[in-house]
Amino acid sequence: MKKQPKKQRLSVYLDPDVMKALAAYSARRDQSRSLIAEAAIASFLSPDAAERQEAATTKRLDQLDRRMIRMERDLGIAVETLAVFVRFWLTTNPPLPEPVQAAARAKGAERYNAFVTALGRRLAKGPKLRQEISEEIPSEDGAT
């Protein structure tokens, strides 16, 4: 009959907070701190732990990828919105004659301040433009 190998002793230094957590956990489970530490180390070193960590990392990367896709979409909407507005504005607004430009600048500053205030209110309570735009915009020939 083979003899069970004797467990080997290991001395480690733990942060006081980690030691308190270990002591509290072992007291709740009515197990020795040594047994809890051994189980934790075995779990950390097991191949399953690496697989779980890889799965968690993959899940996190997938979440980041989806966020990045939404950010790219939102940025595309913002750029296109600005381009459409600038084209429309340049098409519909003729240049002003010299004598009225100063008054127009003053009125423009006043209107700009009102715009910034309205934008601040909309950003604070919504809805956001991206929520008003469909995810799938049909093409001109009717296909999506």
Describe this structure in words.
The chain has 5 helices and no strands. The chain is an all-alpha fold and 144 residues long. Among the domains are: 16-45, no CATH class; 97-135. Helix 1 (16-29) packs across helix 2. The longest helix is centred in the middle third of the chain and has 46 residues, at 47-92.
Record keyword descriptors for this entry.
144 residues, single chain, 5 helices, 0% strand, mainly alpha
Topology record:
Blueprint: H1 16-29, H2 33-45, H3 47-92, H4 101-125, H5 129-132
Helix pairs in contact: 1-2
Protein name: CopG family transcriptional regulator
- The low-pLDDT segments are none
CA(first)-CA(last) distance: 74 Å
Order of helices and strands: HHHHH
Share of helical residues = over 70%
Share of residues in strands: under 5%
Query: Mean of residue pLDDT?
Result: 86
Number of strands: 0
Which structural class do you get from the secondary structure elements? mainly alpha
Main sheet specs:
none
Helical stretch count? 5
Principal-axis shape: elongated
Gyration radius, to the nearest Å? Answer: 32 Å
Question: Gist?
Answer:
With 144 residues, this protein is an all-alpha fold. The chain has five helices and no strands.
